[in-house]
Design goal:
Structural class: mainly beta
Oligomer: single chain
Number of helices: 3
CATH topology of the largest domain: Neuraminidase
Number of strands: 36
Strand order of the largest sheet: 1-3-6-5
């Protein structure tokens, strides 16, 4: 050992290092060892997610996306392959940088449901040999949906408002100086498309982002009225009606045609290549395969099938498209019936099978003494909520809300109050609640109101006064 020390001292003398140099060498060596230790320890520690690096947690709105922020830039495929959510729900992945995963459900999370999210162990870092060592699991509960509507109904300058059902708090979502014509909530509940009037009486489509409270314009409808937005189920496009003013041409307002705007690029185009095809009330099937409009040129519902690239027409004089079933294979719509009661005309409901184009009445024969409209499918496709008025001994001045079995035609009363007329029916995503508009028939000065009903218990709750056109916001 003395011989080795002597050799080391000799070697250092040969390098001609003084005491200061020796200290520097020692410090550099220590730093190298420390860095190596950190690298080795980092690989042993692996990837992790901080306690506040994931969400949502607790009780949240159904439109909230799932977010996970990792300690490292991640290999996206390895994370997405290990992502689990129960109950299962379809959705899309996106990333903020390479370290934050975002999962956005295509349909809102169901109100009253608890969800469990798991990122399984093994998700790998992109830039080092490290991985998530243990499963990351957490749960969250979904609150009741919120109700949006237009208000005040007795003013020209209306805006979109929203009420939180548990608290009763109401918030104004849009601030259009010249008012809003109508609106539609996006399929995932994160955005609202609305038709906003300009100072010259034209109207454009705008988009309200409910997550960051921002607005952006979607269309440039110069000398035109653009309204009636309808979201494609994947949220990428919006169909809408456009009427040209034809200012200076002495020809008045043009008939409505349906246009499409791409939400990301803002590219716009006619729905049909033939500009002579008219259209109102654009309505998408829930699977995005079909879109239906009412075409006055053929006096019927024109249905375009994207998969087959074909059009079909269902003749009806009512001017109303109706609603697709949840599976997208059936359409329920109103038709004019002529019954035996005083030879009067009234509306019945028909259902068309879109694969065979066969049609049948679900209100009964022509002489069935009912007037049906506003049919809306329950989310599970087993029944319809309809606005019905009986024309026999059960007659009421206003229409009431009934639950109708589309296979048997049997009707169950849900909201019956002869003092009111009921309309604008909408189911929530869970199928537990319905929001609707009602109007008192009791005298002058009445204004429309927004109410909800619990389908299982029949419990009624008023949401807003002097408001109309309700919709659910998850």
């Amino acid at each position: 050992m003395p011989e080795i020390s002597s050799r080391l001292r000799g070697w250092l003398r040969a390098l001609d290092l003084d005491r200061f140099d020796l200290i520097v060498v020692a410090v550099v060596a220590a730093l190298i060892l420390a860095i190596a230790g950190v690298v080795l320890a980092g690989d042993q520690i692996g990837v992790y997610v901080a306690e506040n690096g994931y969400g949502p947690t607790g009780s949240v709105n159904g439109s909230q996306p799932v977010r996970v922020r990792f300690s490292d830039d991640m290999a996206a495929d390895s994370v997405e392959a290990r992502f689990r959510i129960a109950p299962d729900i379809a959705g899309d992945f996106s990333w903020t940088g390479q370290h934050t995963l975002i999962f956005t459900p295509r349909q809102p999370f169901a109100a009253g449901q608890s969800y469990t999210v798991t990122i399984e162990a093994g998700a790998r870092a992109a830039r080092r040999d490290a991985a998530l060592k243990d499963d990351l699991t957490w749960t969250f509960d979904v609150q009741l949906p919120r109700a949006a509507f237009l208000a005040p109904s007795d003013a020209y300058q209306r805006n979109v408002l929203m009420t939180d059902l548990p608290t009763g708090d109401t918030f104004q979502l849009t601030t259009a100086e010249h008012g809003v014509e109508d609106f539609a909530v996006s399929p995932n509940g994160n955005q609202i498309a609305y038709s906003r009037y300009n100072p010259d009486g034209t109207a454009d489509l705008w988009l309200r982002d409910l997550l960051n409270n921002t607005d952006r314009q979607l269309t440039q409808c110069i000398d035109a009225l653009c309204h009636a937005p309808a979201w494609k189920p994947d949220g990428t496009q919006i169909a809408y009606q456009r009427e040209e003013f034809n200012t200076g041409l002495d020809m008045g307002l043009s008939p409505s045609r349906v246009w499409i705007v791409d939400v990301a690029t803002l590219d716009t185009r006619l729905l049909f290549a033939d500009s002579q095809i008219l259209g109102t009330e654009p309505t998408w099937s829930p699977d995005g395969r079909r879109i239906a409009v009412f075409d006055a040129t053929v006096s019927g519902i024109r249905i375009h099938d994207y998969e087959a690239n074909t059009d079909a027409v269902i003749e009806t004089a009512q001017g109303v498209v109706g609603q697709f079933s949840p599976d997208g294979n059936r359409l329920v719509y109103p038709v004019l019936a002529r019954g035996l009661i005083g030879q009067q005309f009234y509306t019945h409901l028909e259902m068309a099978d879109l694969d065979t184009l066969s049609r049948r009445s679900i209100s009964g024969g022509d002489d069935t003494p009912v007037e049906d409209s506003g049919a809306v499918w329950s989310p599970d496709g087993t029944r319809l909520a309809v606005a019905r008025r009986y024309l026999d001994g059960r007659y009421t001045n206003g229409k009431q809300i009934y639950l109708l079995d589309p296979d048997t035609g049997e009707a169950e009363p849900l909201v019956v109050d002869p003092a009111y007329n009921h309309s604008a029916i909408r189911w929530d995503a869970s199928g537990r609640r319905i929001v609707f508009q009602r109007f008192s028939l009791g005298g002058a000065g009445a204004r429309p109101e927004i109410w909800t009903v619990d389908v299982e218990t029949g419990a009624l709750e008023q949401v807003a006064d002097n408001a109309f056109l309700p919709a659910w916001v998850p």
